Every structure is written in C-alpha cells, then in structure tokens.
Amino acid sequence: MDFSKKTFRIAICAIGFAVIFLAMMLDKLISLALPVSMAAVVLLVTFSLCFVFDEWLFGFLTGVFFGLASFLKAFVFGEATFVTFGVGSIVIYVLPRCFVGIVAFAVYKLMLMLLQDKKSPKCQHMAMVVAVFVGLVLNTVLFLSALNIGKSIVGEEYSALILTIKAVMFTNIIPEYLISLVLVPFVVMGVRRGLKLGVDGDNMKRAREAEKTSVSQS
C-alpha cells in the first residue's frame, strides 16, 4: 500500500472515531433531559460506520472506537464505573467492544453469502438488520458481563445479568435497538451513495483490483 492510501485510511479512521465520540457526547446531552442515560445516537453511528466500507478492518475498528469513546466520556464526566475502577475501567469499556464490531460485520457477510446477492439493496438491508441485532445483543451482554465481573473482583455488589437487562429493557434496550435496527440500513446506503461506494460498499476494493490489473498488464 502506498503512502497516499495509508494516509487515506488513517484519515478515515480518525474521522470515524471523532464522529463516534461526538455522537456519544450528543447522547450525553440528550440524556440530561431524560430520566435515563441513552446511547441511541452512538449505537446508530457506530453500526452505520461498521458497514459503510466493505472491509473487515473498519468493522473491527468501529467497535474499538466505540469502546474508547465510552472510556473517554466516563473519564471526562467522572462516571461511576470510572470512579470505581479508575484507568482499569478501560478494559471494561473497550475489551467487550473489540468483539462487537467484528462479529456484527461477520454476520453481515454471512447473511450476504446466504442471500447470494450482495448488490441487491433489499439483501443489503436484510443482512444489515440481522447483523445490527446480533451486534446490539452482543454489546449488551458482553459489556454488562464485564462490568459485573469487575465489580465482583473489587468486592462491590452487582445485579445478575438477566436482572440488569430486565431493569433497563423498556427504558434503554428496546428504544435503542429499534432506532438502530430501523435506521442503520438507510444511513449506510445513503452514505454509500454519497461517497459513490456502490450498493455493496465495495467500489474502493474494485478500484484497487483494477489498478493492480492495469499495472500488471503494462
């Protein structure tokens, strides 16, 4: 990969992290007017970025960026988890999210293989809905599990995973899930059109392959 391509990838990653962090700050602002803390915007943005480019690396990095943004927010606002675990809370915030993006992207690719038509908008939509749902569930289960393990290690009282999920099912989980499940496919397809990435988000890869072919033939 030449210097310009490396620079482009670094720029895309930096922009992606910035957008995820801003989305998290927007959620924080919205939550000030609500009785509960919401993460609807950042989940929508994170999973949208996960599928914009048809590349495993970006799928993985969106989850990592989500975790890092969560840690930075907790640090800036002195949230309870950060107060309890300090810098060590980065493990709770980031480690579970390392699996969220890559698993969601893997489910997306698997669904497209099963549907056998990755250039169909309908198939793309269906694949993303299934992948987002799996990613959301994984994020909920892994993060709450990591939090409970951390609390048990430091001797703090914690609620069982199922009880915690039940407690926030109607106030957080269902609204956040619905927003992402409904909007992510439309956001992704819109961004792909705007960036001319193709219906499947694969135009950059096709351009690279065409460039390699032309170079080999010259």
Descriptive account of the structure:
The chain has 218 residues and is mainly alpha-helical. Helices cover 83% and strands 0% of the residues. The longest helix has 35 residues, at 161-195.
Oligomer: single chain
H and E order: HHHHHHHH
Largest sheet: none
Helical residues, percent: over 70%
Rg, alpha carbons: 19 Å
Distance between the termini: 19 Å
What's the total helix number?
Answer: 8
Unreliable residue runs = none
Morphology call: globular
Task: Tell how many strands the DSSP assignment holds.
Answer: 0
Summarize the topology.
Elements: H1 3-31, H2 40-52, H3 56-77, H4 80-85, H5 89-115, H6 121-153, H7 161-195, H8 203-217
Compose a concise summary of this entry.
The chain has 218 residues and is an all-alpha fold. It has eight helices and no strands.
List keywords for this structure.
218 residues; 83% helix; mainly alpha
